[in-house]
Amino acid sequence: MTWQPDGDAMARRDAGPSARIARRFASAARATLAGWRRRAGGRCAVCRGWCDDGLCACCAARFAFAHARCGGCALPFSPHPDEAFDARCGRCRRAPPAWSRAVAGVDYGYPWDRLLTSFKFHQRLDQVDVLLRPLLARLHESRETPATHVRVVAVPLARERLRERGYNQSWELARRLARALELEARADALFRVRDTGHQLGLQRAARAANLRGAFVVTPRHAAWVRGASIALVDDVLTTGATAQAATRTLLAAGARDVQVWVVARTPES
Ligand SMILES: [Zn+2]
Ligand SMILES: [Zn+2]
To answer: How far apart, in whole angstroms, are the C-alpha atoms of residue 209 and residue 55?
Structure first.
C-alpha cells in the first residue's frame, strides 16, 4: 500500500479546467514530501529504525493506510462504488454537520496518539511533518483538489493556554499545510474568546452551550473571511463540538463554506 500521491495520474484523470490546478497542487505536494524526507534525518518517528523519510515504509503501511471515510464525520465508512468520493454515512445524511467536508489523515490511536501528545505537550514540533503526511496524502487523493481560493485557519487556543504552551499546535499544523498546498493562511483570523475547558465529560447539549460565543472572527480579518472557502485545521476531531462552534462562527461571519482538516479522527468507542 502506498500513500504517496501519484500526482501525474491524478492530473491525467482530471481532464478539463481543473487539470492545471490539479497539476500545480500535485507538484507542490511532491516537492513538500521530498523536502520533508530530506529533513527527517534518517530515523522513523515510530520504530526509530533507519529510514530516509521520517516514517519507514513498514510503519507507513501499518499505521498510515487510507480508510474510506465519511465526508461528514470522517469516521471510516465504505460508500457504494457508484457514490461520489465524498459520500456521507447515514447519520451525516440525517443530521449534516455545519461544515461542508471533513478530512482526516488517520484514526486517533497508536502511534499517532503518542506522536500527537509529544507534539502538543512536549514541544516536539519536529513531529509535525510526519503527523501531516497522511492528511496531505488524503487531501491530495481527494478528487476535490483544494483550489487556490481555499483559505486556511486553525482552531485557536485561549490566550492563557497559549501562554502556558508557547504555541498553538493547530496553527503549527495549519501553517505548514498551507505552505505545502500553496494556500493563504492567517493565524489570528479566528480568535478564542475564552477557554472552554475539557468537553469530554459533558453531554452534547452542555457541550454546545459551553462553546457558544467561544470564537469570534477578528474585525481585522472579517473581509478575508467573508465569501471565502475556509479550511479549519485541528489536531484531532473527537466529538466535533469545537469544530462545529468554530465553523458556525466562520459561517456567521460570511464564509462561503468551511472544511475541517484534522490529523486524526477518534474512532467511535
Ligand atoms: Zn518505522
Ligand atoms: Zn458521517
So the answer is: 41
- For residue 45, which ligand has an atom nearest its CA? 1
CA–centroid distance, residue 93 to ligand 2 (Å): 7
Check: CB of residue 23 under 8 Å from CB of residue 31. no
Second-level CATH architecture of 68-265? 3-Layer(aba) Sandwich (3.40)
**Which burial class, exposed, middle or buried, applies to 118 when counting CB atoms under 10 A from its CB (0-12, 13-18, 19+)?**
middle
User: Distance, CA 108 to ligand 2 centroid (Å)?
Assistant: 16
- Ligand 1 centroid distance, CA of 265 (Å): 21
Centre of ligand 1 to C-alpha 194, Å, is 40
Residues of the chain with CATH 3.40.50.2020: 68-265
pLDDT digits (tens, 9 = 90+) for 124-163: 888 899 999 999 999 887 756 556 689 999 999 988 888 8
